[in-house]
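User: tokens in, sequence out, please.
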């Protein structure tokens, strides 16, 4: 008896897609504490890359939770499912030949590893590093204030853990570097590791 679900083959190869877009598909996965600067860098990187001719799109943690993952909470199990779904979607973006920039706290190493496995060789992990004191001082959404007041539970870095990468493709220290300096480092990494190719 044949299985009910069978993979359907595409008529376009990865090489076809690379020739069309002028670059390989990839996932740039930004992880770090809330207020470390992930979303700011992701949106700035998207703009710069588009100006250079890349086809790209940002998947942002808050945005995804308004739609695809609006049914999920913030328990450890829900956080794991959040990243599982995003990892699979990002892998589809990369397979389509696009550059997918992901900005997610993604606190657990095991979940980020599963996202890497879904994306295979196309996955590039970037640790947007800022310590808890720096993030608490920034607190643009008021989340740390609410957590410290007991209004918000399961706050990563306070009442919920964050497991920083032990090894990753790039670390950007936003405690020391300005947004402009951080963006330059991130952009340089992309240009050197996912270069634009001559279009046919």
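Assistant: Sequence out:
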């Amino acid at each position: 008896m044949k299985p009910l679900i069978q993979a359907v083959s595409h008529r376009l190869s990865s090489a076809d897609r690379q020739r069309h877009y002028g670059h390989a598909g990839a996932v740039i996965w930004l992880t770090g504490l809330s207020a470390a600067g992930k979303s700011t860098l992701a949106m700035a990187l998207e703009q710069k890359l588009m100006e250079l001719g890349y086809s790209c799109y940002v998947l942002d943690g808050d945005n995804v939770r308004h739609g695809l993952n609006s049914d999920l909470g913030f328990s450890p199990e829900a956080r794991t499912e959040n990243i599982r779904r995003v990892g699979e979607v990002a892998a589809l973006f990369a397979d389509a030949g696009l550059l997918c920039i992901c900005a997610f706290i993604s606190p657990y190493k095991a979940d980020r590893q599963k996202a890497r496995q879904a994306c295979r060789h196309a996955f590039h992990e970037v640790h947007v590093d800022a310590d808890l004191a720096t993030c608490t001082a920034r607190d643009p959404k008021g989340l740390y204030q609410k957590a410290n007041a007991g209004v918000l539970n399961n706050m990563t870095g306070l009442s919920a853990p964050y497991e920083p990468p032990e090894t990753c493709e790039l670390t950007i220290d936003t405690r020391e570097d300005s947004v402009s300096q951080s963006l330059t480092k991130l952009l340089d990494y992309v240009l050197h590791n996912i270069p634009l190719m001559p279009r046919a």
